[in-house]
Specification:
- The complex is a heterodimer of chains A (158) and B (110).
- Chain A is 23% helix and 39% strand.
- With 158 residues, chain A is an alpha+beta fold.
- The longest helix of chain A has 27 residues, at 5-31.
- The termini of chain A are far apart.
- With 110 residues, chain B is mainly β.
- Helix content of chain B is 0%, strand content 54%.
- Chain B has no helices and seven strands.
- Chain B has strands spanning 4-7, 16-24, 46-55, 58-67, 76-83, 87-95, 99-107.
- In chain B, the strands form two sheets. Chain B has a four-stranded antiparallel sheet, with no helix packed on it.
- Chain B is elongated, with a radius of gyration of 16 Å.
- Classes of the chains: A alpha+beta (158), B mainly beta (110).
- The interface between A and B is medium-sized, with 32 and 32 residues.
- β6 of chain A pairs antiparallel with β4 (58-67) of chain B.
C-alpha cells in the first residue's frame, strides 16, 4: 500500500506537537515546585501568599512520618529568622491536603517573640501532605512541605 | 469555665527567649462528624487565641492564632517570647457559641 505523504507529514507534525506539549507540562511541573501539590492545597497556599512567589527553605516542619493516631498529632514549625524589628516573621500558617478543610492554623507573630517557633497538636483525616508557610516582614514567603502516613484517622469515631 | 494550663518559666533571666505553653479544655467539635442519628453535629471550635504582654501601662500583642477544625481537642499552643522586663502575660481564647476565656500570668524577669 502506498502511504499518502501528506498524511505522514501531518502525523509527524502532530507527534512533534504532542512532544512539545509534554515538554511544556514537565517544564511547568519543575518550575511550579517543591509542592507538586494538588490544586486545592496549592490554591490555599497561593491565597495565603496573595499570589506571590513562595520559596523553599528557612521553614522547618517537625512531625512524625508515621502517625498511629490522627486525632492529636504534635507538630513544631521553626522559621530561621533573627526576629528583629528589621527582619522577622509576621505570619505563619499550616495547610493540609486531604482534611475536609485546607486550613489548620494561621498565626501572627511579632518581633517580641524572639524566636519564630510554633508547636501545636492537629487532626489528620488520612495520609497526606502538609505545608507550613511563613510570611516575612519584607513580603517574601517561605514554605516547607512534608508527607505523612496516618494509620488511624481522625473524624471516624462518633 | 474551661480549665486552662499555662506554663511559663517562673523567673526567666533578662533577654532570654522563653517558651510559653497554653492548653485549654475544649471539645473542638469539627462540624464534619455525624452524631448517633447520622446528623452532622454543629461546629463548636475555638476560633481565635491571642497573647498580650503588658507592662507599665503598655500592652503589646505578642502572638495570635486563628484556629480551624483541624486543631485537636483541648488546643495546645506553644510559642516564644523574649523576656525583657517584668509584666503580665494575658491570654484570650474566643470561639463559637460566644465562647470566651481570659487568663493572665505574672512574668517576673530577674
Amino acid at each position: 500500500m502506498k502511504m499518502n505523504p501528506n498524511l505522514l507529514n501531518t502525523n509527524s507534525a502532530r507527534r512533534r506537537h504532542i512532544l512539545a506539549a509534554a515538554v511544556g507540562v514537565t517544564g511547568y511541573v519543575l518550575v511550579r515546585p517543591a509542592f507538586g501539590a494538588p490544586a486545592t492545597l496549592d490554591a490555599a497556599i497561593s491565597e495565603f501568599a496573595r499570589g506571590t512567589k513562595v520559596s523553599s527553605g528557612r521553614v522547618k516542619f517537625e512531625i512524625a512520618e508515621l502517625i498511629d493516631n490522627g486525632n492529636a498529632v504534635p507538630i513544631t514549625i521553626t522559621v530561621d529568622s533573627p526576629m528583629t524589628d528589621a527582619d522577622h516573621v509576621v505570619a505563619l500558617a499550616v495547610f493540609n491536603e486531604k482534611n475536609p478543610q485546607r486550613e489548620v492554623i494561621k498565626c501572627r507573630l511579632s518581633p517580641l517573640a524572639g524566636r519564630a517557633q510554633l508547636s501545636t497538636r492537629i487532626r489528620l483525616a488520612t495520609s497526606q501532605k502538609l505545608t507550613a508557610i511563613a510570611e516575612m516582614n519584607d513580603g517574601s514567603f517561605y514554605a516547607s512541605t512534608v508527607e505523612v502516613v496516618v494509620t488511624l484517622a481522625a473524624c471516624i469515631e462518633e | 469555665m474551661a480549665r486552662t494550663l499555662i506554663t511559663v518559666p517562673p523567673t526567666p533571666k533578662i533577654n532570654t527567649v522563653i517558651e510559653i505553653r497554653a492548653l485549654i479544655q475544649h471539645p473542638m467539635e469539627t462540624g464534619f462528624r455525624p452524631d448517633g442519628e447520622g446528623k452532622l453535629q454543629p461546629r463548636n471550635i475555638i476560633q481565635r487565641f491571642e497573647c498580650r504582654f503588658s507592662s507599665g501601662g503598655r500592652s503589646d500583642l505578642i502572638f495570635s492564632a486563628e484556629l480551624f477544625p483541624a486543631v485537636s481537642a483541648n488546643p495546645y499552643i506553644a510559642f516564644n517570647f523574649r523576656a525583657t522586663q517584668s509584666g503580665t502575660l494575658s491570654f484570650l481564647w474566643t470561639g463559637d457559641n460566644g465562647f470566651t476565656q481570659a487568663e493572665s500570668v505574672a512574668l517576673v524577669v530577674v
